[in-house]
From TrEMBL:
Naturally occurring in which organism (per UniProt): Streptomyces alfalfae
Pfam families for the chain: DegT_DnrJ_EryC1
Molecular function GO labels: transaminase activity
Name of the featured protein: DegT/DnrJ/EryC1/StrS aminotransferase
Essential cofactor(s): pyridoxal 5'-phosphate
PANTHER family with a match to the protein in the record: DTDP-4-AMINO-4,6-DIDEOXYGALACTOSE TRANSAMINASE, TRANSAMINASE
Length: 220
């Protein structure tokens, strides 16, 4: 899409650092330079104000990615694009997001109503819960990894959704200020919410997490 739009050498393309490196790599393959903007802490998608802050005379486009089933604020991002004459491209995470959607949403609602000691996702009518991502802020410092080990020890699978932000990777290392991206990378943990899970499976997730809740104090 970038090449078809005539974007290449000398151009900058705004992308998120909170995700995998594929989008930044595609920008490089097109001959352009990826520029990282910070995310919204609730949706984990590009924050429109942060995008506006990094726009320069060389900026040609913004690539918008929806994250974990959360929808980016495309309307405001397109407003930024119109103000600065930028192409705004959308990139979805994966296909097949409608499979078991109602059950995933029901499972997410069950977890959100019962989990304590972690920050549950804000949700919303458009959230498809491709991943159910909570925050584990700890007692004034990130305690996510210890929490994850303890949850796994109780028989519940969990995983870190973004282990290393793209701007920390050697090939893309940038001296940029992305506080929300850094914080999300340190605090987020994905819990299972598959459509195939039973009520007992969900109860096991709640029990494993809440057993550790007294060790945690939610930030924000």
């Amino acid at each position: 899409m970038l090449r078809a739009a005539g974007i290449g050498a000398g151009d900058e393309v705004v992308v998120s650092a909170y995700g995998d490196a594929e989008t930044a790599e595609d920008v490089v393959l097109a001959g352009a330079m990826p520029v990282f903007a910070d995310i919204d802490p609730a949706s984990y998608c590009l924050a429109p104000d942060a995008v506006a802050d990094v726009v320069s005379p060389r900026t040609a486009a913004v690539i918008v990615e929806h994250r974990f089933g959360n929808q980016a604020d495309v309307r405001r991002l397109r407003d930024v694009g119109e103000r600065h004459g930028l192409l705004v491209l959308e990139r979805n995470e994966s296909e097949g997001v409608t499979d078991g959607l109602a059950r995933r949403r029901a499972h997410a609602a069950y977890l959100s109503g019962r989990l304590s000691g972690v920050m549950t996702p804000e949700g919303g009518a458009d959230h498809s819960y491709q991943q159910y991502v909570v925050r584990v802020p700890g007692n004034g410092r990130p305690d996510r990894d210890a929490f994850a080990r303890a949850v796994r020890a109780r028989g519940v699978n969990c995983w870190v959704p973004v282990k290393t932000p793209v701007h920390r990777l050697p090939q893309f290392r940038r001296d940029v200020c992305l506080p929300q991206t850094e914080r999300a990378a340190d605090e987020t943990l994905a819990l299972p919410v598959d459509a195939s899970m039973s009520r007992r499976d969900l109860q096991r997730v709640v029990s494993a997490c809440n057993a550790l809740g007294g060790l945690l104090q939610p930030a924000f």
